[in-house]
Amino acid sequence: MRRFSLLCALAVILTPSAGSTQQESGPYSVLKTAKVGGPGGFDYVYADSASRTLYINRRGMPPAITMYNLDTLAPAGRIEDVNGHGVAVDAPSNHGFTTSKPVVMFDTKTQKPLKNIEVGGNPDGIFYDSFNRRVYILSHAQPYATVIDGASGNVVGTIDLGGAPEQAVSDGKGHVYVDIEDMANIAVVDAKTMAVTAHYDLSGKGGTCAGLAIDNKNGILFAACRNPQNMVVLSAADGKIITTLPIGRGTDGAVFNPATMEAFSSQTDGTLTIVKEMSPTNFVVEQTVQTMATAKTLTLDAKTNRIFLIAAEFPPAPPRPAQGSQASPNPMIPDSFTILVVGKK
Other C-beta atoms within 10 Å of 172: how many? Predict the structure, then answer.
């Protein structure tokens, strides 16, 4: 996942794409924004609905896992000196994990690190599968996935996914699906054997897919892709593509809410695309919500049915440098880091 940091320049002026302007009116809106500030870049955001905790990794100077109350967005704790991307939680053991190197396992109650877990590659994405309480550490370099036992924190094994993974989901029945960003496909993994059993080809329909969500009731996958800018809807059973729908530019996350039968894709152009599942064969773009430029990742609070996004303000990109020179960094505007809450009006 391409992260935003204090040393990351914003390459283009962020404007909504043509496909993202459809259905701007609808039941959802930005209900709340909280400019929580603080230094350090950002990548993933994770809502632990049961404990009412929002986890956000802040990368850089200084790095930390930051926590907020899901209901009030008040600060709820920090774990210092952890330079990670995202968090996953094994609730039965109160163990949290973050995609740093080494991976840090921490106690979600005391907010104290418990141990470091050595892994290869470059930890980026993270996914927890409640089917067998395993944590998947996803990397754009081999090994593409390292699997950790949620209770013990021991490495169970690694998986060659055949390419760079972005986001993973589970059907809760022993199948894990991972979108492979650089190969325009979705890898299907047997959660028991940790073997890849299939690749679902998305070529021509969606490439550079960075978000993945699942409707477990009907066995539907939603792959949010950047090139072309589509939400590819397909069968989890055999990979048959059902339809494609336009989304905004720069997607980096997707989630499905079974309570409302809606899939959400967040985009760096400042849009949130909402796809409504009318039936297992009928899907429509219900609404495009204007959020905030760089709000590219999201998480669902299953208790309130609200979507949480994170973003920050950046100055305009500097002019191109003269040939042979290097561009200056385009740092995030200090204390502009913001949490956004989207829900029904």
Answer: 12
